Amino acid sequence: MTEDFSEQALPADILERASLAGNEYAWRVKDIPDVIAAARAANMISVGGQLQFRLPDGGTCELYWVEVDTYKSVDQALPWAERVNRTADVALRDFEALQTRFDFIAEGRLSFGTYLDALVADGRDPADSMCFVWYVLSKTGEKAIKA
Question: What pTM value is reported for the model?
Fold first, then answer.
């Protein structure tokens, strides 16, 4: 199986807002609707992603249960164009629902309180470290993964 880096094909203005750790792009929570729209416009599938806190020392606190995963609800057998549109719609709907279901900072404190408290002790706002890793998939990228 080959790795896919479809996120690199997103428009420059979207990538400029991202942080990159390893091979994962992440955006501020408020930017995710723009990432979904950009993926749709670029004919890419919005796969989804997870909430993370990216710490100044390079550590990552991932809240894998605070996620969007369109592979769970959008049929992969649909024609590509329909999948692109359907995943964008589902991703946006599920992402908005996630924000009403969870208080992201409170969830972070439940599992990673020590790390978030250290940010506060250093005069930082944990919200500034909060982001959402978001994956997109191009048609070429999907073929590479399946190869």
Answer: 0.91
